[in-house]
Structure formats: C-alpha cells, structure tokens
Amino acid sequence: MIYVIRNSHEYGPYDESVVAGYVEQGILLAHDKARDAVTGREATVMELLKARGYHPQVSHKGSLGEQLRAIGSEFIFPRDDMARHHWLDDKRLLILAVVGLSLSVLMLLPIGGLLVFYAISLYFSVVWGLFFYVFFRSRQVNVKTTVSVFFLTQIAVFIIFSGLSHLNFFYFFTQLAFPLNIVGYVLGVGLTEEFVKMVPLLFLIRRAREPLLPQTLVYYGLMSGIAFGVFEGVEYQTTVNVQADYTTAFFLNVARLTSLPFLHALWCGICGYFVGFAHLYPRYRKSLYALALALPALLHGLYDSFAGVAYLVSLGVAFASVLLLMTYLSKSNSFRDKLRR
Predict the structure, then answer these.
(1) How far apart are CA 83 and CA 85, in angstroms?
(2) Residue 3: helix, strand or coil by DSSP?
(3) Could you give the CA distance from residue 189 to residue 300 in angstroms, rounded to a whole number?
(4) How far apart are CA 171 and CA 202, in angstroms?
(5) What phi-psi label fits residue 150: left (phi over 0), alpha (psi between -120 and 50 degrees) or beta?
(6) Averaged over 168-184, what is the pLDDT?
(7) Residue 237 and residue 166 in contact, taking contact as beta carbons nearer than 8 Å
(8) Distance between CA 42 and CA 10 in Å, rounded?
C-alpha cells in the first residue's frame, strides 16, 4: 500500500496496482512524493512502484494531430485574447519588450560612429532605470519626470565637461602619485561629477508643486547617476578602451556599461537622500546640502584613487556605498524625527 503526498497532504493508502494505473492515465506523476504504508519510507511514486515490480508507462491520448486538435487553436494562438489585452497597461509586458527588443529595433536604424556607443550606453541605462523603477520608486514618482531628470543630467554633463570642468584646480592632483592623487580624485573628479549629477535634483525641487519625499529624491538621484553613466560610457569607449588590447577593451566596455554606471547611481542616490531632507527641513539645509555633495564625492574619489593601486579597497568602497544607501533608507523615519526637534 502506498500513500501519495501532494501539497503536504497525504492521500490513501492505495494498492500498488491502483497507483500504477493512475500513473498510466496521467492522474499521478512519476515524481509525485509518496510513502510506503508499511515501512514508512518516503520516495517518489515511481521509486516505490519499481521496488514492487511495477513499471507503468503513460499512455498517449491519441496521435500528434489528435492531441493538437484536442488542445485547440485558441490555446496555441489566442488571437482574440491578444487583441483584447490592454498591453499598454501591462507594466511587465512593457518592461520585457523594452529590455528584450530595444537593441533589435536600434539595429534597423542607420547609426554609426559615436551614435553606436551612445545607443548601447543608453540601452543599459534603460535596463538599470527599469530596475530602479521597480525597487525604489515612491508614490510621487512618474515616468515623465524620470525622463526629464535623465536628459537634464545629459545636458548638464555635456555643458560642464565641454570645458567648464577645467576650472576646478584640484584636477591637477589626479596626475600625482598615490596617495597625493586622492586630493584630486575627491576634490576634483568626485566633487565636480557629483555636483553635475546633483543639478537636476536641485532643479526638480525648485519646480516641485509639493514636498518631495527623500525616497523620491533617492530614486531621481539614481536616475541622474545612470544618465551620467551614459556620458562616461561613451567617453571611455572612444578614448581609453580603444587603446587596450581586444580582451581588455571588451571587459572594460562591459564594465563601463553595466557595473560602473551603477556606482554613479548609488552615489547620486545618497546625494538625493540628503537633498530630500534639506528640502523638508530647511533649517538644516546648509549641513544637509554639504553632506549631499561631500559624502558622494568622498566615496567617488576614494574608489577612483584606489582603483589603480589596490582594487580590493575600491570594491570595499563600492560595497560600503550600497550599505550606506540602504541603511539611510531604513533610518529615514528616525532621521526625520531627529530633524524635527
């Protein structure tokens, strides 16, 4: 006798011949869980049946054609259901289509040169953006503002890095040996790039029609950081990466398009957190705006300066950036209570 187990419930016991017949009819599956009623041994239905000399074979329900007719065309190609489906309202479908088909659509366009690099960078930014939209958006987030922040960052990047970045004296220190170059990477590269990513957040607050939650500014900060990654991805693919051998260039291209833009997003997300609180509690805005710029610049600068001499330290800085942002978000309520005093 055999007990059959499904969804943590036991059924039976059944005689072995009855169980074998159920398997042949497709009522029971060979890999269903089962228990020997005498010994208490648990195994699959097929294992217990074989131990008793049964070797049931599932019988086919007609020929291939008969099976297809039984399934019916409405299940193979559900044309009417597809026509009635409100696919524009199905976020999962839209996300799947964007992630899976964007590059295929771009292949139809006559693009070349820098536009190729920009299109690929933009694609990966959209993928990251969809990830952030799913996991970090608040009730105040909308797609129109998301797109605006993304392209505002693009404009700020191309204006500032067309020459204005050279006004920062501390860039000179990046040419010095470690550890003196930390000064350049923190006060030059870090401070300048994080300020660029911060500009759209300040613009967004100025145009806001309601108080924006810190989590909302974190989300838009993540988007601004990803937008900056598009610019940097194009810049490195056309300068640094083309000078490397094929294997190194391939790895750097993938890293610049996937992992490294994520770091830019993290640092700007931290910026957005403090900008959000500065907006809600203006009495503390001096310190909060200073933290919004200084902390990301410090993390950014330390990551860059250690990347060439001790990359494990850079990885530690990257992990600390993730941990900081998630901890900040978890402590939002207690931080809010502290600023209310």
Answers:
(1) 6
(2) strand
(3) 8
(4) 24
(5) alpha
(6) 88
(7) no
(8) 12
Compute the chain's Rg from CA coordinates.
Answer: 29
Question: CB 236: neighbour CB atoms within 10 A?
Answer: 19
The whole-number average pLDDT for the span 250-257 is 76
CB atoms within 10 A of CB 339: 13
DSSP string, 291-340: HHHHHHHHHHHHHHHHHTT-HHHHHHHHHHHHHHHHHHHHTHHHHHHHHH
The structure tokens listed for 261 are: 């833009």
Contact 46, 30 (CB under 8 A): yes
- Between β-strands 9-14 and 33-36, what pairing exists: parallel, antiparallel or unpaired? unpaired
Mapped onto helix, strand or coil, the DSSP state of residue 178 is coil
Query: Is residue 241 pLDDT above 70, yes or no?
Result: no
Residues 6 or more apart in contact with residue 90 via CB below 8 angstroms: none
* CB-based contacts of 290, cutoff 8 Å, min separation 6: none
- Residues 6 or more apart whose Cβ sits within 8 Å of residue 63: none
Alpha helices by DSSP H, listed for the chain, are: 16-24, 45-51, 64-71, 73-76, 79-84, 91-106, 114-136, 143-160, 181-183, 191-207, 214-238, 246-257, 259-280, 285-307, 311-330, 332-340
pLDDT tens figures, 41-100 = 999 999 999 988 999 988 888 899 888 888 888 777 877 776 776 666 666 677 677 667
Select from 146, 164, 161 the least CA-distant residue to 200. Answer: 146
Q: Residue 325: what residue type?
A: L
Pull the structure tokens for residue 175.
């040419």
Q: Which of 119, 117, 89 is nearest to 104 (CA)?
A: 119
CA dist., res. 62 & res. 68, Å (int): 10
Which residues face 34 on adjacent strands? Answer: 4, 43
Residue 284 dihedral angles phi and psi, to the nearest 5° = -105, 15
